[in-house]
Design goal:
Blueprint (H helix, E strand, L loop, with lengths): L21 H10 L4 H10 L12 H10 L6 H7 L26 H11 L1
The structure holds iron/sulfur cluster (SF4).
Length: about 120
């Protein structure tokens, strides 16, 4: 996990284990982080149950894992990047939540997942 030392949260990791609305603030750090995909792949592959990793909350990761049960290695999927498309990564419609609430997976994150699987 050499990427850990390059993570923007390395000096304040407790910030990534915020609850509720503070998770959205934590995610803004991830969006600028140079190791976001390494971090997200680690959390998905190791079924991290708590905290914000790679700009996804535990709830969002659980949802993604439920929708993509066939992915054995997210690290492999992200490494493959633009070289080939995984059939199970075909984009799904973004679920729109009720007005005033953030979507289950923000559109920006969906776009990033689409970009790495394109
Ligand atoms: S992506 Fe977020 S949680 Fe992961 S190392 Fe970077 S800042 Fe920390």
């Amino acid at each position: 996990m050499d990427w850990v030392d390059r993570g923007l949260c390395r000096t304040q990791p407790e910030r990534m284990f915020a609850e509720g609305a503070a998770q959205n603030e934590a995610k803004t750090v991830c969006f600028k982080c140079p190791v976001q995909l390494d971090c997200l792949a680690y959390a998905l592959d190791h079924r991290e149950e708590h905290g914000v990793w790679g700009a996804m909350t535990e709830r969002e990761r659980r949802s993604l894992l439920r929708r993509r049960p066939g992915v054995a290695s997210w690290a492999e999927v992200f490494r493959a990047g633009t070289t080939h498309r995984e059939p199970e990564l075909e984009p799904e419609p973004v679920r729109v939540s009720r007005p005033g609430r953030a979507p289950a997976i923000p559109a920006a994150e969906v776009a990033k997942l689409r970009a790495v699987s394109a």
